[in-house]
Design goal:
By secondary structure, the chain is an all-beta fold. The protein is built from no helices and ten strands. The chain has strands at 5-9, 14-18, 21-26, 30-34, 40-44, 53-62, 66-74, 79-86, 100-103, 109-113. This is DUF427 domain-containing protein.
Length: 114
Amino acid sequence: MASDITITRAEGTWVVRAGGAVLGESTDALELAEGDMTPVIYFPREDIAMAFLDRTDQKTHCPVKGDASYFSIVTKSTTLENAAWSYETPLEGVDRIKDHLAFHTSEKVTVEQL
């Protein structure tokens, strides 16, 4: 694992909300800290209501984590494009985030500890 990335169990219960609805709640979330960036919470897929997420064609590459796939969140009133991502085949050293999703936070998407 790159020396500037750490992955730890995110203590407590974490929730992700979009468009006023709870998309997921987990006591098994992971926190990925990378350098000086704000830590990111990764939710296990089994704790997310995947029916509200649509896979998009968006892809990005991180030389440390691998290739990310993106998902839009479909809410009652709008579609939040590429609001979630997942490293489905992460590189060695960050493989704990496999089968997890992270979310771009905004006014319409929140990730918080309960």
